[in-house]
Design goal:
The protein has 33 helices and 34 strands. It has 990 residues and is an alpha/beta fold. The model is unreliable at 1-93 (pLDDT under 50).
């Protein structure tokens, strides 16, 4: 049986003006966990009560599906953790909490209390009313966790004084309530935890100190690939292939869920991590042993921001940073500026949430929001469903913000009820948030909040659009699409250009597709995928896509058979409401059969194209197109053979699949010819907003959520049959090509290595602007001629079993070989040649990046990377920092860094440096053939965050850079050789 998790319910997802809400009386289910205790607890909480709570319920919808321990084994397993908790409580008595006088009771309407909370209201500080809601969450966390060690009273004052301190880039600590992982990033995180236990053992310390101290949820959703499409059996066939490829990884994750406390693993086939988080894992407000506080989360996937649509503060961090958070370390962050984004009006008929988010993305990219929070407010908020808000929040990484935050209001509360949270829980959430100045009530007068800068959008101005062909923020309105496409063919190679000569732009390639005549042109659609957390769990766009399919079927239109079509919902509820509506059959008729419940095409798991299609593209240099309802379309990500990749709403994905090309003006040109011989236009198949609303109301029902939540707790037969050892230390298999013991802590001692500069380093790679983590980190399929392929073949792995880089993230040998292995890599050392090669400067040889790096390492020579602006943008990937470190890269010098990637570089001990404004490698005349010396003191106390350093070359050039250690804590990480050695040494001393 294939199990999948729940999705959005009906009316909370309609525009508020048309919404009707259903009530829910779902009983509360539970699953066991050991909570991370708040920094200080009310006086009545004793260690004894905390021990009894170790098997108490965690607020959620379901029960744990893992095989239950006996009571004795449960107590034995948690004893070391409880002991540490008791020690923490003993050393941090409530009397010593700096804000103990602000601990306030939250009464229940019928008598008694929900619990206690640290009250912002009782501070009686007028500055609080002016703070954005997102900053108030940071404030509450600082007050609750204040111990004058990890979090100081001075930190609380910095946040209270946000209007003055934020422009100064001050540093604050933040302790998120929980951590979210998916399997691609979760496997290396569990690998790191396992090898950290080994390191603790080797240092003579207690390995059980390596245990998550906050709840950790890991959802397996990144492994399913679209191997089988256009088939009624696709879901089962793809899941069987997923398990056959990933059994070792899945067994390792299942081991981790039993070996480590506080870790929950949601099995494959349950849905997409961010949708599971939205509907199932998100608490909004925690109630831990009677202490109430806001839910907050950091995740190892950059689209963790989707939860911001629910009013939960969440964003993506590197896996390295997440591991430190799990182990009780506060996150060190710069207090962000907040952009106030005012929404007014309402969306016009036929305009989708996807059109809105692509518009917002372009606006915010232009405004510049990197490192900032964006907070939405205004009269237009009432016109946005929770699903629409989550769509906008999801794409925060694409517009560059840390968060796109929607404070909790009545729409949020209705959504919580609709997705199975009990009435009492929702009442507690509302009561707490109102009492603590964290709830927005648009029916009451509000004090004016202050923002760092302001933007405004009238929703009625949003037009239907798509984005591409290579970046999410390159929005194109539908009416301009044909002209834009032809401009892209003409333009020189770049983000908006393919440099196709005029004389061959119209060429047609004829070929045979399984005995049928077929043809391709530049712009032909060969992949049409309804995929990704951004859109697939929004009923309005999903049912809109189904209505497009129905109208096309009724008129006699069919998608060409050589277009690889697929539907991968973010939730099992999608399947239920598509079946309830009677519309799934029309999607099937157009080839959009459900292929699985996971990320699929959006992360490059699109599977192979048919051999005849692939040959036609490759042999004739066709610029083929993919159209997907995803959030990322960087070149080389979706599929190696689709050079043009466009992001679109699910209904537009179906429309472009039917048209068969992106080279079309939907206003003027027909999509095809109907069964009556007449031309069929876009307007003939496009549903109205009213049509969609009616189907949503009648088809999306609360019972669908309840039944799906019940089934997710049972796992699935293939997962349940995995057997794992009950050991606390992992037994590494030296022959495994999936899970390998990494070398991070080999020879580690208790003494930190100290700060260091770089002397006479060679340039491994010389890049321009917008090098993404897709370029750096191993992703997608493993090319048959790559160093990673050679490694696997030498170990007896057949090419058909290579799997993807993502599935092998637990093996550092594969990942180091796949670093900088993107086939679209543009390295200036190669003088225009594109591909994963570089020049080994001393010999002049052209080698794979890995082989060149190993040649430098074997000669004892350090390397650096030169780069342009926005280095490391895209998905948060720890391997984009771990890989370069294993290759021997000591520093990266760029014009600017993406926030998470810069943090990850620091976490792995790599020095991030920025050129001064107006300078870069080109303006300074750097070719990359020089040797570089970076003058940093060897005493860490002599280095300050953001200080200037001098870089000299053997050619006589000298220039000044800013060292991007942004906080004192990051300097401490650098002194220890990275964040993980820092944590190990600190825990060993406790």
């Amino acid at each position: 049986m294939y199990i999948a998790t729940a999705s959005y319910s009906a009316s909370a997802l309609l525009r508020a003006s048309r919404a009707r809400f259903f009530s829910s009386s779902t009983s509360t289910l539970s699953r066991t966990f050991l909570p991370s205790p708040p920094r200080a607890l009310p006086r009545s909480f004793t260690a004894q009560r905390l021990l009894s709570y170790s098997a108490a319920t965690r607020w959620s919808h379901g029960v744990h599906w893992r095989a239950p321990y006996t009571l004795r084994s449960q107590i034995r397993a948690i004893a070391p953790v409880v002991e540490r908790v008791q020690r923490r409580i003993a050393t941090m008595a409530p009397e010593s909490h700096p804000f103990k006088e602000h601990l306030t009771s939250l009464p229940k309407p019928g008598g008694g209390e929900y619990g206690k909370f640290y009250s912002l209201t009782s501070l009686k500080d007028p500055r609080i009313d002016r703070l954005p809601y997102s900053i108030r969450i940071l404030l509450e966390s600082a007050i609750r966790n204040c111990d004058n060690f990890q979090v100081k009273k001075e930190d609380v004052e910095k946040i209270l004084d946000w209007e003055i301190t934020a422009p100064k880039q001050v540093e604050i600590p933040f302790k998120p309530a929980r951590v979210l992982l998916q399997d691609f990033t979760g496997v290396p995180a569990v690998v790191d935890l396992a090898v950290m236990r080994d390191a603790m053992n080797n240092l003579g310390s207690d390995s059980n100190k390596i245990n998550p101290l906050v709840p950790v949820d890991l959802v397996v959703d990144h492994s399913v690939q679209v191997d089988v499409a256009r088939s009624e059996n696709a879901v089962q066939a793809n899941m069987e292939l997923e398990f056959s490829r990933n059994q070792e990884r899945f067994a390792f994750l299942k081991w981790g869920s039993t070996a480590f406390q506080n870790m929950l693993v949601v099995p494959p086939g349950s849905g997409i991590v961010h949708q599971v988080n939205l509907e199932y894992l998100g608490r909004v407000v925690f109630n831990t042993n009677g202490l109430l506080y806001p839910d907050s989360v950091v995740g190892t996937d950059s689209h963790t921001t989707m939860i911001d649509g629910l009013g939960v503060a969440g964003w993506g961090v590197g896996g390295i940073e997440a591991e430190a958070t799990m182990l009780g370390q506060p996150m060190s962050m710069v207090l962000p500026g907040v952009v106030g984004f005012k929404l007014s009006g309402k969306l016009n008929n036929g305009v989708t949430a996807t059109d809105l988010v692509l518009t917002v993305t372009q606006m915010l990219r232009k405004h510049g929001v990197v490192g900032k929070f964006v907070e939405f407010y205004g009269g237009g908020m009432g016109e946005l469903s929770l699903a629409d808000r989550a769509t906008i929040a999801n794409m925060s990484p694409e517009y560059g913000a840390t968060m796109g935050f929607f404070p909790v209001d009545h729409v949020t509360l209705q959504y919580l009820k609709l997705t199975g949270r009990t009435d009492e829980t929702v009442e507690m959430i509302e009561g707490y948030l109102r009492a603590n100045k964290l709830f927005v009530d648009y029916n009451e007068p509000e004090s004016e909040r202050v923002y760092s800068s302001y933007l405004e959008l009238d929703l009625s101005q949003v037009e239907p659009c798509i984005s591409g062909p290579k970046r999410p923020h390159d929005r194109v309105t539908l009416k301009d699409m044909k002209a834009d496409w032809h401009a892209c063919l003409d333009n020189k190679v770049g983000f908006k250009g393919f440099a196709i000569p005029k004389e061959v732009q119209d060429k047609e390639v004829k070929f045979s597709f399984h005995g049928q005549p077929a043809e391709l042109k530049h712009g032909s659609v060969v992949i049409a995928a309804i995929t990704s957390c951004t859109n697939t769990s929004n009923p309005s766009v999903m049912l809109g896509a189904a209505l497009v399919a129905k109208k096309a079927c009724d008129l006699g239109l069919r998608v060409k058979p050589w277009v690889k079509t697929s539907l991968a919902p973010g939730s099992g509820v999608v399947t239920k409401y598509l079946l309830q509506s009677g519309l799934q059959k029309y999607l099937n008729e157009q080839g959009f059969n459900i292929v699985g419940y996971g990320c699929t095409t959006c992360i490059g798991n699109s599977g192979d194209l048919d051999e005849s299609v692939a040959s036609a593209i490759a042999e004739n240099d066709i610029v083929a197109a993919a159209v997907l309802s995803g959030n990322r379309n960087f070149e080389g990500r979706v599929h190696p053979l689709t050079r043009a990749n466009y992001l679109a709403s699910p209904p537009l994905v179906v429309a472009y699949a039917l048209a068969g090309t992106v080279d079309i003006d939907f206003d003027k040109e027909p999509i095809g010819t109907g069964k009556d011989g007449k031309s069929v236009y876009f307007r003939d198949i496009w549903p109205s907003s009213e049509e969609i609303a009616q189907v949503v109301q009648s088809s999306v029902l609360p019972e669908m959520f309840r039944s799906t939540y019940e089934s997710i707790t049972k796992g699935n037969p293939m997962w349940n049959q995995l057997s794992v050892p009950e050991t606390k230390l992992y037994s590494w298999d030296p022959n495994s090509t999936y899970i390998h013991e990494p070398p991070y802590f080999k020879g580690m001692t208790m003494d930190p290595p100290g700060a260091h500069g770089v002397k006479d380093a060679y340039c491994l790679l010389n890049f321009g602007d917008s090098i993404t983590t897709d370029h750096i980190s191993p992703a997608g399929s493993i090319h048959k001629d790559s160093p990673a392929a050679k490694y696997l073949l030498e170990r007896g792995v057949d090419r058909k079993d290579f799997n993807s880089y993502g599935s092998r993230r637990g093996n550092d040998e594969v990942m180091a070989r796949g670093t900088f292995a993107n086939i679209r890599l543009v390295n200036k050392l190669l003088n225009g040649e594109v591909g994963p090669k570089t020049i080994h400067v001393p010999s002049g040889e052209k080698l794979s990046v890995f082989d060149a790096a190993m040649k430098y390492k074997s000669a004892g020579q350090d390397t650096i990377v030169l780069a342009g602006a926005e280095y490391g943008s895209g998905s948060s990937r720890d391997w984009a920092a771990k890989g370069p470190m294993l290759l021997g890269v000591k520093a990266v010098i760029s014009k600017s860094f993406e926030r998470i990637h810069r943090s990850n570089l620091v976490g792995m001990g790599i020095i991030p440096l920025c050129f001064k404004a107006g300078e870069d490698a080109d303006t300074l005349g750097l070719t990359g053939h020089e040797r570089y010396t970076i003058d940093l003191p060897s005493n860490i106390s002599e280095i300050k965050p953001g200080q200037d350093v001098t870089v000299t070359t053997d050619s006589g050039k000298s220039f000044v850079c800013t060292v991007r250690f942004d906080t004192e804590v990051e300097l401490a990480y650098f002194n220890h050789g990275g964040i993980l050695p820092y944590v190990i040494r600190n825990l060993s001393k406790q």
